[in-house]
Specification:
The chain has 4 helices and 2 strands, in the order ββαααα. The protein is mainly alpha-helical. It has 2 domains: 59 residues, Met repressor-like (Arc Repressor Mutant); 40 residues, no CATH class. A two-stranded antiparallel ribbon has the order 1-2. A hairpin with a 2-residue loop joins strand 1 and strand 2. The longest helix is centred in the C-terminal third of the chain and has 16 residues. It starts with a strand and ends with a helix.
């Protein structure tokens, strides 16, 4: 038996989850988990427990550019804003506007 959120839960109340995943990802995950001493089932249990505890995905999801979604959206917005900004052909004009 295990204790979870102040309620006693019997281990016999466990259920089975089936997932589909490509074999390359499964092999790579299994190797990594083996290296740290976890089996696939324990890793999934840890993940789902953390989903509950954090009330969301318990890791920083990154885009292909290595940013979180919020960071990438902010960067894209800043880039868009910069493109709408003032263009200068003379450094004196730029420094004048910057009050340098």
């Amino acid at each position: 038996m295990s204790l979870h959120t102040n309620k006693l839960i019997s281990m016999s109340s466990q259920e089975t989850i089936q997932i589909r995943i490509d074999s390359k990802t499964k092999r790579a995950a299994r190797k990594t988990l083996d290296d740290i001493g976890l089996d696939m089932s324990s890793a999934v249990k840890l993940f789902l427990t953390n989903v509950i505890n954090r009330k969301g995905i318990p890791l920083d999801l990154k885009t292909e550019n290595g940013f979180t979604l919020a960071q990438e959206q902010a960067l894209l917005a800043d880039t868009k804003e910069a493109k709408r900004g003032q263009a200068y052909t003379d450094l004196d004009d730029l420094f004048s506007d910057l009050e340098l």
